[in-house]
Write a structure and sequence with these properties.
alpha/beta, Rossmann fold, seven-stranded mixed beta sheet, about 30% helix, disordered N terminus, disordered C terminus, S-adenosyl-L-methionine, EC 2.1.1.77, PCMT
Length: about 200
């Protein structure tokens, strides 16, 4: 178990070295890329603190070949990190509600050459991106006021979702019998998910 966790941590460290945050920041913020704090990316959004991103990815336990949904993709950094973790046999879809950010994030991800990852603007009135049989992993980088049922329903069997609810980071797991289990993993601060969609 210890070696399994160590290997997982190494994978995330490798991903963060291979996909530098600097390339996903506005030019004015790039000199600060090494700082372990949120940085503004425009449109009222931020690039999350690297330590927070690493903690979320460790909880998510992304396997090679997984189908992953990245909600609140922003600049595309988390989408690209997830793409690195799943590899070319997996797929990652980032969704971002702000059209201008979605276009910028999509261009940033395209520059990585990982063609199995993409970002698109979120469909108005739809939370997440429903797909048949759900997603293997869902990463949510915005805080909801309550656990959104619509997103829980998009977690496939054996799948995991990491989502901040108010200031608490939750791990949602879909068990083999279809039930879900939620566990609390500490306090964090995130930009808000659209409240009318998160009910």
């Amino acid at each position: 178990m210890v070696s399994e966790l160590a290997a997982e941590h190494d994978d995330i460290a490798r991903a963060m070295r291979a996909v530098p945050r600097r390339e996903f920041l506005p030019r004015s913020q790039r000199p600060l890329a090494h700082q372990d704090r949120p940085l503004p990316i425009g449109r009222g959004q931020t690039s999350s603190q690297p330590a927070t991103v690493a903690a979320m990815l460790r909880l998510l336990r992304v396997p090679v070949g997984a189908r992953v949904l990245d909600i609140g993709a922003g600049s595309g950094w988390t989408t690209a990190l997830l793409a690195y973790l799943v590899g070319p046999h997996g797929s990652v879809l980032g969704v971002e509600r702000d059209g201008r950010l979605a276009n910028w994030g999509a261009a940033n991800v395209a520059r990585t050459g990982m063609q199995w990852a993409s970002i698109e603007q979120a469909t108005p009135g739809v939370l997440g991106h429903p797909r048949p049989n759900g997603w293997d992993r869902i990463l949510v980088s915005a805080a909801a006021p309550a656990l959104p049922r619509a997103l829980v329903e998009q977690v496939g069997y054996g799948g995991r979702m990491v989502i901040p609810i108010r200031t608490t980071l939750l791990l949602i797991e879909r068990l083999p019998d279809g039930r879900t289990r939620a566990t609390d993993h500490g306090g964090y601060r995130f930009v808000p998910l659209i409240e009318d969609l998160a009910e």
